[in-house]
Design a protein that fits this description.
430 residues, mainly alpha, 25 helices, 68% helix
């Protein structure tokens, strides 16, 4: 009954109607659902809104019904639409296993649960539930407990301790977070620690910026990208972050320097030597970097800067690296006034059989090119689950998410839930 009422609330009469497709979704009859959806799509009578109602029913049933190791996977599959699936995740929380703990954290991210409701699990014997409890350590008086949790033997607990510190914004956490970012063996914990440092309440002088500078020296590319974003954040930019970024973009190279340059240029009021260095860093990366660095710089470059538009246009037209060309064409086709021939060049890469077809098709779908819709619908029957899900995402970008509804009856339960979330997120954006 709760599921029925939620569907009605979100999708109105489309969700409440007892159509053959909805009855099949409610009972988990994949064959009947597949047949009903195919019949509706032949007559083009399945709307995006009704497809989203079916998606909610399918995903809700999958999350509630999964058992054993599959339960944890289904909860993970549903993270992107945790808001819509809050009722199913709340039900899953009642089982004290790894999936239940994951559901609790998903509900926090989906804003269906407040962190304070997890404090009872702080001393839980199960690491994942203890991690869920640790997420609640956001009060000023929790500083000592957060510091201790950052040293917990379990990486799940340490990660949630860093996330709690990000919410707490307590300047006293700077030292423990810096140590976690420096020595923790888990990359995700190091990343969360840097993000937490960026969110701390303003510190005296340039303390946070200097701590991040020390971390930069020993950090890998991934951590340096997070540090660049932290320097550019509102809490650090004016307290040493701008100067740290100026030095990096003027003297270094690689993924971290590219992220730093892009972060500088996102500050619309930036000017002078730091802006000049940032522009030069990105142009150089686009023209001379490794293929991965070139693609990163192309993706990050603000095209309202003439120098960067020229560099991306050149990358789209020249060279023998098709990955770089598609990345550049994807940026250009999304521009307010794409250059003539850009769509046609991307369509050549989007042809069936092209190794870059998925990337090219998504770029074209994001630009509203409906001529590729037929190819996307063919991809829904691909043997590769990645291709099927990529097609669903592209169809949603075309505002044709209902055409991805056949995936709600897919043989793979992970595809069913992830596709359902794609349809639900499309409905949310509308």
């Amino acid at each position: 009954m709760k599921r029925f009422l939620l569907t009605c609330l979100l999708f109105g009469p489309f969700g409440c109607a007892s159509s053959p497709a909805m009855r099949a979704a409610e009972t988990g009859d994949r064959a009947a659902l597949k047949s009903a959806v195919e019949q509706r799509e032949k007559t083009a009578s399945l709307s995006n809104r009704e497809a989203a109602a079916l998606a909610l029913t399918v995903a809700d049933r999958e999350v509630r019904g999964a058992t054993g190791p599959d339960a944890l996977e289904r909860v993970r599959d549903s993270r992107s639409c945790a808001h819509e699936l809050d009722a199913a995740l709340a039900e899953r929380m009642r089982t004290h296993d790894d999936a239940g703990a994951e559901a609790a954290l998903a509900r926090i991210d989906g804003r269906g649960l407040v962190v304070g409701e997890l404090r009872d699990y702080l001393a839980d014997a199960e690491p994942r539930w203890r991690a869920a409890g640790t997420r609640s350590l956001v009060r000023p008086e929790d500083h000592g407990a957060r510091t201790q949790a950052l040293l917990d033997p379990d990486p799940y607990v340490r990660r949630q301790a860093a996330r709690a510190a990000r919410d707490a914004t307590d300047p006293a956490d700077l030292g423990p977070l810096a140590e976690a970012a420096r020595v923790d063996p888990e990359p995700l914990v190091r990343t969360e620690a840097v993000r937490a440092i960026a969110a701390l309440a303003p510190l005296p002088s340039d303390e946070a910026a200097n701590v991040l500078r020390d971390l930069w020296s020993a950090g890998d590319d991934g951590l340096r990208e997070d540090i660049a974003l932290a320097w550019a954040g509102p809490a650090v930019w004016s307290a040493g972050g701008r100067e740290a970024l100026r030095i990096v973009v003027a003297s270094e190279h690689g993924a971290g320097a590219v992220e730093a340059a892009a972060a500088v240029l996102r500050h619309k009021d930036v000017s002078g030597d730091v802006a000049v260095s940032a522009l030069a860093q990105l142009v150089r990366a686009i023209e001379q970097g490794t293929p991965a660095t070139r693609q990163q710089a192309i993706a990050q470059a603000p095209l309202d800067r003439p120098e960067l538009l020229a560099a991306v246009t050149k990358a789209a037209a020249e060279g023998d690296d098709d990955d770089v060309r598609v990345a550049a064409l994807a940026r250009l086709v999304a521009a307010p006034a794409p250059m003539g021939g850009t769509v046609e060049k991307l369509e050549a890469f989007a042809q069936p059989g092209s190794p870059l077809s998925q990337r090219a098709r998504f770029a074209l779908a994001s630009a509203g090119d409906r001529r590729i819709q037929g190819w996307l619908e063919q991809d829904l029957t691909s043997e590769r689950s990645f291709d099927r899900l990529a097609a669903a995402t592209a169809l949603a970008s075309l505002d044709a998410s209902a055409r991805a509804a056949p995936l709600l009856a897919d043989i793979d339960p992970s595809v069913r839930v992830r596709a359902a979330c794609t349809l639900l997120m499309a409905a949310r954006s509308r």
